[in-house]
Queue: 2 jobs
Job 1
Amino acid sequence: MPSFKTLDDLADGQRVLVRLDLNSPVEDGQVQDNRRFDRHAETVRELVDRGFAVALMAHQGRPGRDTFVSLDQHADILSEHVDHPVEFVADTFGDAALSAIRDLDGADVLLLENTRMCDEELPEEDPEVKAETEFVQTLAPEFDAYVNDAYSAAHRSHASLVGFPLVLDAYAGRVMETEYEANTAIAQKEFDGQVTMAVGGTKATDVIDVMSHLGEKVDDFLLGGIAGELFLRAAGYPVGFDLDPEADLYDSQWEANHELVEEMLAEYGDQITLAVDMAYEDDAGERAEVAVDDIEEKDVSFLDVGSDTAEAYAETIRDSEAVFVKGALGVFEDERFSVGTVSVLEAIAETDCFSVVGGGDTSRAIEMYGMSEDDFGHVSIAGGAYIRALTGAELVAVEVLSRE
């Protein structure tokens, strides 16, 4: 298990370069406020209170995409969450950025421009290569220490994430610290009681990979979403394929994973709970349900697990010591098809268990349906990094923080 230094090990009042992950939805050119700002504000606020001069780095979108925009709006949003001015400079490591950095006093906060506007940021290269880039070599001498708080980007070997820890004293911010501890718990903690994992969402390949790695750790997998249908298909039911070939939600993922799914059913079948009923939209536009055993052919799109399944999953969770969630069990954005996802989340909230809810979509359901994050052990803001943590894969930006 990597062992990194945290803000507790960092002497007050220094000049620090901090990497956040403020990557956000952009609608009609407007950056949307989201949970990442609130979470990272905790780290920034602590640094301000302790008198650090703080320069922040973050990314937004990728070149060529509509979401690839400046971070000027991010500075305003973050300032509201920190309740402290966050200045912005439209430069990352050029003369304007260096001048603004040198003007920083204790408790000042400056956000640099989108790191992905730098040519040396994006290519996936070894940390040693990134440490030698002009980007890193120019900025590093301006600071006493580097803080990485961007756990959700920790699987990326980009310059702002892996280059600076090789040339500066490096520390984990509060988001990095808490996310890493929670998301590796399923692999590293020992639980006396039942360990349950609810898996769903549209990226079946991801959750199937997670399941294959955690078969020895999880007592009961509760399945929904695309993965749930693919497992039902492997079990012999006429579901788990695309009605519209243009949609390509099921067939390509079945082709890529069906052998592994069949192997898992054979090896871990008693640990895998499949839906007993499914929900769909009827001709009147209402939620309708059908027992899986009564499906003769798939002629409708299934948008949620059924009510009997949701109730059974909730009961399993109430008997569990630890519950992990990856992906929604249905299209919860439509209230008609939120039953499975909300039932699972409410059962976790009502149960005194260790819990981690991962994935942006699923965690969004907590707020959407009036639940409180305080009722969950940990609500992750990570996506790809959460998947990698669950499968035990290395997170390169965590690994470099641990180097001596």
Job 2
Amino acid sequence: MNALSDFIGTRAPAGDIEASHWQGGPVDCSACEYAALRDRPAEQGCEPGHACMQDVYARRIDRFFRWHPEQGDRQLGHPYFEVRAIAARHANVFRLASLMDDPDETVRLQIALRLPQQLLGRMAHDPHREVRIRVAQRLETAELAAMRNDTDYGVREWVARRLPLALLPTMARDPDRAVRLIVAQRLEMPALLILLSDKSPEVRRTVAERLPAPLLPRLIADTDWRVRWEVAQRADPSLLDPLREDDDPLVRQCVLERQDTRQALSLVPGVPHG
């Protein structure tokens, strides 16, 4: 058996890159610990150029482990990071702790996706943001509070999405607008009032969308027309006189239409108005 003859008659899906050993050069089945698998049929074996653990291409490595998931535990220490990462998808979850500090973030990403909850919190300070995002997506909500001050806004966004409501007000002053927007979408009254004076118009508009109607006049003089428009859409028409001469034509139009409709309904017998 030699490296060239191994490729005769093998198949590779259209679009796949040329087969190559992960250390460079051709794939040599004679030097592979799984060489005996070549004699087995179809998915019971392996196939250079299609399903091969020696290959540099992650897709072919993945096919090998999907055919032989029982090999996941054995390859967690493989020198090629792609092999370790893909083996981690199939290995026993109780074997994954050994890779929590793997030097490659691709491997640690896979670990964060499968690690048992009792160990997952230990990865909350991983140096790579994508790993910490995976942790924030999976960590039990009671443990998320420890990640509220993560240095990356993407991590904090996920914390804001999943943090228990009782703790969410502590993120209302987050430095990032996108995080505060999520907070505004979830906070309930009276905690929502914390964001009435937020520096971001998008956040204040979200508050205006969710604030109880009787409290909307608190935003009637907001500096952003989009916030005032929300007020004009939802507040009692009798309270909208200050916006009849608003600088923005859309706000003025909304106020006039709502007040005209209210006036018209008040003239119809038996139709309540308010």
